[in-house]
Design brief:
430 residues, Growth Hormone, Chain: A
Length: 430
């Protein structure tokens, strides 16, 4: 049973490592295949493992008697499981190099999807969704680590297209419900999702994993290159600015986690309650199609414009999209809202992770990831009372939360050191 790919086992099995590459593992000799397999893993972990529930929620409400409060609890259980899995990855980072764990996580994830039609009641569904969340985190973190390790030094868009699997999975789950909703039951929707997860798991099965870290001495890079040469007073001033930016960025990202997950859970159900339920799964397809290229697009923009300002812009656009979905009832408005939401929620992840890695704190990315996951647990809980009166008011709450996140991002833009104001994002942490 192998723990890592042969690429990490010897010099003959991988390309020569340049001076710059000693900061990370060797690049993949087949980057396109690595990106494609990571894309398949993203479909499994997030696109299906997490977001299959969104288009299924109206069907379960109609056919299985799942009320809004129960729907919020089932969603929260999944996010709590993901949070637990993310914490395991932070505490035990070597897990992303454990092939058996990666494969078992995909098996467990697929099994929980297949078991949903067999379970009855909020408690059983919540238990399965919690287990699915843990497995989803394990698969995602392994795929993210693979992209960083094997696409190191490649063009940023290639890594961004690896993350297109999230949008692709959303598109496929939306199309599945779109096809089945007139002729099949909610159970068939979960069975189809399990089949989709099984197929994409098979495609990701041999994905190259992150090799062990380099053992050569002196390979650690400073968190901020400018700190090496800055005078003590200037360095202290920069570090103070970095602390303020880190706090603002963490607040913004935690709030985004809460706001985006409200839409990611209840958008299709809200559309159904608005009287245009027939386009709900279609709107979810639009979300996926917009999300698929968004990481590559926002990453490209972040290499040319200040990342914190781009983050604030993406959050503002997302807030408008959520408010539009809550207030406007027409099909055109709903589809525009889906486009705005889909085109930004992955972009905010990419931009935040880029900024976090450039702040002068070694654990900045880990803290940001934990805050984002915590926000996803809190999001469904803070709207639990609201959804008793309908799903559309919940989207308004989500829009307000994301608007506050926008203000925090603007504060981060004022405090971000110039050295960390630009740069592409290679590895978002979802």
């Amino acid at each position: 049973m192998e723990a890592t790919e042969p690429a990490g086992s010897g010099a003959a099995a991988r390309p020569a490592v340049s001076v710059g590459e000693r900061l990370g593992p060797a690049v993949s000799p087949r980057p396109g295949l690595t990106a494609a397999q990571a894309c398949a893993a993203m479909v499994v972990s997030i696109g299906v493992g997490r977001f299959a529930y969104t288009p299924m929620l109206p069907l379960m409400a109609e056919q299985a008697g799942l009320d809004p409060a129960g729907g919020a609890l089932v969603a929260t259980a999944n996010y709590a499981g993901y949070f637990a899995g993310a914490l395991m990855g932070i505490v035990f980072p070597q897990l992303v190099r454990f092939r058996a764990g990666f494969r078992w996580a995909m098996v467990v994830l697929t099994a929980t999807l297949a078991a949903m039609p067999l379970a009855q009641g909020v408690l059983a569904w919540s238990t399965l969704r919690c287990l699915c969340g843990v497995a989803s985190a394990a698969v995602f973190m392994t795929a993210a680590a693979s992209l960083l390790a094997h696409l190191h030094g490649r063009t940023a868009h290639l890594s961004g297209w690896g993350y297109a699997g999230v949008g692709l999975g959303i598109t496929l789950t939306g199309l599945t419900v779109l096809v089945l909703r007139q002729t099949a039951s909610w159970q068939a929707g979960w069975e189809a999702s399990a089949l989709l997860a099984a197929i994409t798991s098979a495609l990701a099965w041999t994905m190259p994993l992150e090799p062990p870290p380099a053992t050569a001495s002196g390979t650690a890079a400073p968190a901020m290159n400018g700190d090496r040469v800055a005078a003590p007073a200037a360095r202290a001033k920069k570090r103070l600015a970095g602390k303020g930016a880190a706090v603002s960025l963490t607040i913004s990202y935690t709030l985004e986690g809460a706001g985006y997950v409200i839409a990611g859970t209840f958008l299709v159900a809200a559309i159904a309650q608005a009287g245009v339920g027939s386009i709900g799964p279609g709107a979810w397809v639009i979300v996926g199609l917009a999300a698929a290229p968004s990481c590559a697009v926002w990453t490209w923009a972040a290499r040319r414009l200040p990342g914190a300002l781009l983050l604030a812009a993406a959050l503002a656009i997302q807030s408008v999209g959520l408010a539009l979905a809550a207030l406007a009832g027409g099909p055109v408005s709903v589809l525009i809202a889906a486009l705005l939401f889909g085109g930004t929620f992955m972009g905010t992840v990419a931009l935040t992770m880029s900024l976090g890695r450039q702040l002068p704190f070694r654990r900045a990315v880990a803290v940001l990831t934990a805050g984002y996951a915590l926000g996803q647990i809190i999001g469904p809980l803070i709207v639990r009372a609201v959804v008793a009166h309908g799903y559309r008011p919940a989207l308004l709450v989500g829009a307000a939360v994301v608007l506050v996140a926008t203000l925090a991002a603007l504060a981060c833009a004022r405090l971000t050191p110039k050295a960390a104001s630009r740069g592409g994002a290679n590895v978002p942490a979802f």
